[in-house]
Amino acid sequence: MINSNNHCVLILLMLCFSCSTNDDRNKSVEIIEIEAEVKVDVNGMVLLRAPMCEHELEIITHHSYSLAYSELDEQAAWVQYKLFRSNLELPQVKRKNKFKTDQQVATNSATLKDYSKSGYDRGHLAPCADFTYSETCMLESFYMSNMSPQVPSFNRGKWKSLESKVRLYATKYDSLLVITGPVLFPEEPKIFIGDGVTVPEYYYKIIVELSTNKAVAYLMPNEKIKDDISNYIVSINTVEEITHIDFLYDDSICVPCDIEEEINMTF
Fold first, then answer.
1. Burial per residue of 32-50, b for 16 or more beta-carbon CB atoms within 10 angstroms, e otherwise
2. Which residues contact 227 (CB under 8 A, 6 or more apart)?
């Protein structure tokens, strides 16, 4: 838990659920506001509160993931989704690199032009490979709202290794909640590309095993990394302090908050 009395409580909720090839599950569902108790949407899926943040963010919900878009940084401050072993075992659709603007972002998302000749990759926050069980979900992972400027050797190196590690966690534990994003709110001056797209210095991933509420968090610099990704395991509290986002607060109905202090090297 981060200590702040200035959180802007987000009453919009994220839908943490997966797509399937079943047409009924690919339909948009009604969002129901909740208080502290658990409620469900019209398809019986559990809704979870969004993280609380000190900064103004726009909550966007797609079929397979939700995000909080920062207009000041032209990218998401966090992306959340559930990852299931059963979905990874389904026949995989072919990846299509169809990057496109996110029409749901009220202020307009970043564009391909913003990244052109910048020297940075359009780095996925929620990786395409986590959604290749569904054509719809795979294509949605290429929205520019899900991209962040990453050093190429980082995006194609240890960040990619961490993404693969998360899928191994899913095959081991069956059901995961994944929260991932850039560190957008440092005190020092920012670097930008294109029309105001912030270049983050760090990225994080928080992975929660849903049946026992075990968790692990990673915090990695946006640079070429040579050592093992296990060296970048931190506590959830560390991620919360550096991002100014409270991911697992007392009434978030997601997990008990006592896991936030752990540095889980044996996840």
1. eebeeeeeebeeeebbbbb
2. none
pLDDT in tens, 43-79: 333 445 677 777 789 999 999 999 999 999 999 999 9
Q: Which residues contact 249 (CB under 8 A, 6 or more apart)?
A: 1, 49, 51, 52, 257
The residue extents of the domains of the chain are 13-261
How far apart CA 117 and CA 115 sit, in angstroms, is 6
The DSSP secondary-structure symbol of 104 reads: T
The beta-carbon contacts of 121-124 under 8 Å, at least 24 apart in sequence, are 121/149, 121/150, 121/151, 121/152, 121/155, 121/156, 122/147, 122/149, 123/147, 123/148, 123/149, 123/150, 123/154, 123/155, 123/159, 124/163
Q: What is the pLDDT of residues 141-194, one digit of tens each?
A: 999 999 999 999 999 999 999 999 999 999 999 999 999 999 998 777 889 999
Do residues 205 and 169 lie in contact, with contact meaning Cβ atoms separated by under 8 Å?
A: no
The one-letter code for the residue type at 130 is D
CATH 3.40.1500.10 fits 13-261, yes or no: no
Whose tokens are 């997601």? That residue is 254
